[in-house]
Amino acid sequence: MPEIRPKNKGIAVEKQAPNHPGLILLEEFLQPYGISQAELARHIGESIVVVNDVVRGKRKINPRLAMLFGDAFGNGPEIWFNLQANYDFCRERDALRRAGKVRHVGKLSALAD
Fold it and tell me: pTM value?
Protein backbone atom coordinates (compact mmCIF):
# COMPACT_ATOMS: atom_id res chain seq x y z
CA MET A 1 0.00 0.00 0.00
CA PRO A 2 1.38 3.46 -0.86
CA GLU A 3 2.44 5.72 1.98
CA ILE A 4 -0.31 8.01 3.27
CA ARG A 5 0.68 11.42 4.56
CA PRO A 6 -1.59 14.01 6.14
CA LYS A 7 -2.20 17.21 4.22
CA ASN A 8 -4.48 20.20 4.73
CA LYS A 9 -6.71 19.89 7.79
CA GLY A 10 -6.09 16.21 8.41
CA ILE A 11 -7.06 14.95 4.97
CA ALA A 12 -4.89 11.97 4.03
CA VAL A 13 -3.39 11.77 0.55
CA GLU A 14 -1.25 9.11 -1.11
CA LYS A 15 2.37 9.99 -1.70
CA GLN A 16 3.09 9.53 -5.40
CA ALA A 17 5.83 7.06 -6.27
CA PRO A 18 8.79 8.62 -8.07
CA ASN A 19 9.06 8.40 -11.83
CA HIS A 20 11.63 6.12 -13.41
CA PRO A 21 14.81 8.12 -14.12
CA GLY A 22 14.37 7.32 -17.82
CA LEU A 23 11.16 9.34 -17.90
CA ILE A 24 13.01 12.23 -16.27
CA LEU A 25 15.78 11.86 -18.84
CA LEU A 26 13.21 12.04 -21.64
CA GLU A 27 10.93 14.79 -20.32
CA GLU A 28 13.43 17.04 -18.55
CA PHE A 29 16.51 16.73 -20.74
CA LEU A 30 16.00 15.18 -24.17
CA GLN A 31 12.68 16.68 -25.25
CA PRO A 32 13.21 20.24 -23.95
CA TYR A 33 16.58 20.52 -25.68
CA GLY A 34 15.58 18.72 -28.85
CA ILE A 35 18.10 15.91 -28.33
CA SER A 36 17.21 12.55 -29.82
CA GLN A 37 17.95 9.28 -28.09
CA ALA A 38 20.24 8.39 -31.00
CA GLU A 39 22.15 11.66 -30.61
CA LEU A 40 22.65 11.07 -26.89
CA ALA A 41 23.74 7.49 -27.54
CA ARG A 42 26.34 8.61 -30.09
CA HIS A 43 27.59 11.38 -27.83
CA ILE A 44 28.18 9.09 -24.84
CA GLY A 45 29.43 6.15 -26.93
CA GLU A 46 26.55 3.83 -26.08
CA SER A 47 24.10 1.94 -28.25
CA ILE A 48 20.69 3.39 -28.96
CA VAL A 49 19.24 0.24 -27.37
CA VAL A 50 20.81 1.12 -24.00
CA VAL A 51 19.51 4.69 -24.05
CA ASN A 52 16.07 3.58 -25.27
CA ASP A 53 15.86 0.90 -22.58
CA VAL A 54 16.59 3.55 -19.93
CA VAL A 55 13.98 5.90 -21.37
CA ARG A 56 11.37 3.10 -21.43
CA GLY A 57 12.18 2.09 -17.83
CA LYS A 58 13.55 -1.28 -18.91
CA ARG A 59 17.13 -0.62 -17.80
CA LYS A 60 18.52 0.90 -14.62
CA ILE A 61 20.94 3.79 -14.61
CA ASN A 62 24.04 2.09 -13.25
CA PRO A 63 27.07 4.04 -11.99
CA ARG A 64 28.73 3.98 -15.43
CA LEU A 65 25.65 5.40 -17.14
CA ALA A 66 25.24 7.93 -14.32
CA MET A 67 28.77 9.18 -15.02
CA LEU A 68 28.11 9.38 -18.77
CA PHE A 69 24.78 11.20 -18.36
CA GLY A 70 26.29 13.51 -15.74
CA ASP A 71 29.13 14.45 -18.08
CA ALA A 72 26.83 14.85 -21.10
CA PHE A 73 24.36 17.12 -19.31
CA GLY A 74 26.87 18.83 -17.02
CA ASN A 75 25.00 18.03 -13.83
CA GLY A 76 27.25 15.31 -12.39
CA PRO A 77 26.64 11.61 -11.86
CA GLU A 78 25.14 11.93 -8.39
CA ILE A 79 21.80 13.24 -9.63
CA TRP A 80 21.36 10.26 -11.97
CA PHE A 81 22.56 7.71 -9.44
CA ASN A 82 20.34 9.17 -6.71
CA LEU A 83 17.28 9.25 -8.99
CA GLN A 84 17.77 5.54 -9.67
CA ALA A 85 18.46 4.69 -6.02
CA ASN A 86 15.35 6.55 -4.87
CA TYR A 87 13.21 4.88 -7.53
CA ASP A 88 14.53 1.42 -6.60
CA PHE A 89 14.05 2.04 -2.87
CA CYS A 90 10.45 3.22 -3.28
CA ARG A 91 9.53 0.26 -5.49
CA GLU A 92 11.04 -2.24 -3.06
CA ARG A 93 9.47 -0.51 -0.03
CA ASP A 94 6.05 -0.57 -1.67
CA ALA A 95 6.43 -4.24 -2.66
CA LEU A 96 7.40 -5.16 0.90
CA ARG A 97 4.43 -3.24 2.29
CA ARG A 98 2.03 -4.94 -0.12
CA ALA A 99 3.43 -8.32 0.92
CA GLY A 100 3.06 -7.42 4.60
CA LYS A 101 6.78 -7.83 5.20
CA VAL A 102 7.47 -4.42 6.73
CA ARG A 103 7.89 -4.36 10.47
CA HIS A 104 8.24 -1.06 12.28
CA VAL A 105 10.46 -0.87 15.32
CA GLY A 106 10.71 1.91 17.85
CA LYS A 107 13.68 4.13 18.35
CA LEU A 108 16.58 2.71 20.35
CA SER A 109 16.21 3.61 24.01
CA ALA A 110 19.64 5.28 23.98
CA LEU A 111 18.31 7.68 21.34
CA ALA A 112 14.86 8.31 22.82
CA ASP A 113 13.96 11.88 23.75
Answer: 0.78
Each residue's pLDDT tens digit, 26-63: 999 999 999 999 999 999 999 999 999 999 999 999 99
The Cα-based distances of 111 to 19, 76, 102, 105 in angstroms read 34, 36, 22, 13
Gap between the Cα atoms of 55 and 90, Å rounded:
19
Task: Determine which helix (DSSP H) or strand (DSSP E) holds 49, and give its type and residue range.
Answer: helix 48-55
pLDDT at position 105 is: 83
SS3 content of the chain, % helix, strand, coil (to 5): 60, 5, 35
The single-letter DSSP state of residue 30 is: I
Q: How far is CA 36 from the centre of its chain?
A: 21
CB 54 within 8 A of CB 65: yes
